[in-house]
Specification:
about 140 residues; 2,3-Dihydroxybiphenyl 1,2-Dioxygenase, domain 1; four-stranded mixed β-sheet
Amino acid sequence: MITYLSFNGNCRQAMQFYQDCLGGELVWQTIGETPVAKKLPLALRDYILNASLMKDDWILMGTDMVADEGLIRGNTVSILLECHSEEEMRRCFTNLVRNGQCTQAIERTYWGALFGGLTDQYGNQWLLKYAAYDTD
């Protein structure tokens, strides 16, 4: 599964923030790099058509292309990040929550995972999980 986020002119900034928080390789294509660029206003040419942040076995994608009704934020989508270590989880959580809000502090759960949640500064909801610890 690939998570695809929509932005309204700040996709580049958001994806660079996520790269700073999580690491990985970030690539993007602007609208200005496409054949349709000549038909669009100059202001739109720097907008991101498609961005991909890739690390290990996950991809986070983003775009500035928004439907005619505009960007509508809701609480129906969360990004679940399964971490490889407790250290990685805590680092990613600390980075992502900057200028955002903690919705669930990191805690050890009865179902065998370290788990926490947050809403980042762009309004996106994240769930972070690390499952390799002893529940005894």
